[in-house]
Amino acid sequence: MPNMSLKKNEMPVQDPKIRSGNFEEVALGYTEEQAVDEAERCLNCKNKPCVGGCPVAIDIPEFISKIKERDFEGAYQIISRSSSLPAVCGRVCPQETQCESRCVRGIKGEPVAIGRLERFVADWHNAHSTSAAERPQSNGHRCAIIGAGPSGLTCAGDLARMGYDVTVYEALHLAGGVLVYGIPEFRLPKSIVQREIENLQELGVKVETNVVIGRTIEVDELFEQGFDAVFIGSGAGLPRFMNIPGENLKGVYSANEFLTRVNLMKAYREDSDTPIKNSRSVAVVGGGNVAMDAARCAKRLGAENVYIVYRRGEEEMPARKEEIHHAKEEGIEFRTLTNPVEILGNEHRFVTGMKCVEMELGEPDDSGRRKPVVKEDSEFILDVDCVIMAIGTSPNPLIRNTTEGLLTNKHGCFVADEHGLTSREGVYAGGDAVTGAATVILAMGAGKTAAKAMDEYIRSKK
Length: 462
Ligand code: SF4
Ligand code: SF4
Prior knowledge:
The chain is of the alpha/beta class. It has 3 domains: 23-128, Orthogonal Bundle (Fumarate Reductase Iron-sulfur Protein, Chain B, domain 2), CATH 1.10.1060.10; 142-237 and 394-460, FAD/NAD(P)-binding domain, CATH 3.50.50; 241-391, FAD/NAD(P)-binding domain, CATH 3.50.50.60. 33% of the residues lie in helices and 16% in strands. It has a 5-stranded parallel β-sheet with strand order 3-2-1-4-16. The chain has a 5-stranded parallel β-sheet with strand order 6-14-7-8-9. Strands 10, 11, 12 and 13 form a 4-stranded antiparallel β-sheet that branches. Helix 3 runs antiparallel to helix 4 (72-82), helix 5 packs antiparallel against helix 6 and helix 7 (150-161) runs parallel beside helix 16 (440-461). The termini are far apart. Bound molecules: iron/sulfur cluster (SF4) (2 copies).
């Protein structure tokens, strides 16, 4: 008999009072008993509606059935047929708008906790498995992947499984892309990312770090070196600013810079070479997951007051509900319907405050969301000594500027068809480099689609 409870098994979490002072993971993961109990909620629907909501098409009822049988390794094998980064997806995928939004159990009650079960299975495998993945037989062809983030690693994993000799080029000194520089340790421990990358290396994927494509080597040179196809998964690392006065004061960061200092360079450790200014009061401008991550990091670094400043209402915030909830639990203050107009500084050019105006919601705009308009005579000064701009990013123009015939749109994103093919033969692209900043799982889906298309392209040339 299935478990007909209307509620998901709760995820054990660290106490908010304790966790807001440390960088350890917030969610602690299911025990075996909780995982089996949650798996029993799945009705094993024949038409598998949940699978249609997963960008990498994991066979969800099949892996959940294995959990019911307590065959956790069997469940892992099913997931890894479709996903190269299951421990990552189980943690950072917005399941509520993907697979879980299609789950029939969600019609009357909460959907099956698919993401939590995926995380459980991946963690169980990483803790118990001793055998290395079998290396597929080589097909004699080579593929280059630019960027070791979610789309690049997924594309690399799928191509390696097909027998390709795959090299991933990463500009930073560590592979993982946004998984290591963007998402904080307390949401996604870096040891988990490292382990997933090792799993790919066991399949034969080579990772070369500190290689900046467009500087160290150009796309055309990759073809000269004998690669048959190239995938660009270089992400969207160029931060946007508001273009208001004071954005060049000391104590103003882009969320990218702030998070890279904290996550990748471990600025919170005493032995870190990368300093970060101690701040008493921090404003994070933006309402997405990146804004929540930056705010929660600032709190952990010791700021007394941390504000999320967002020009629309909480309902319109693009961040995941779970992240908003966690941020509030940790004492982050939400200043919604508020927009900065100037950052103020002292004679030494340090931030001393942020001038803001209150907003109200007017008629819907092109995006369908109600447009925020300025409320009359509502100007006030928020007492802050640090401002973090988390209002989006676009792709770095370096690859476009150094590669002949590679088209981008007005946002600087690569133009690619539904298979990931760009305007250059043999060059594919996917993830944030094509869509602008989006989610890890959509980037992985794009990497997967491109891997299939690259394989077809290379085989068609034989
Ligand atoms: Fe759901 Fe994401 Fe896992 Fe797919 S990868 S099953 S969308 S949690
Ligand atoms: Fe299980 Fe929900 Fe998928 Fe049905 S829709 S198979 S209940 S996870």
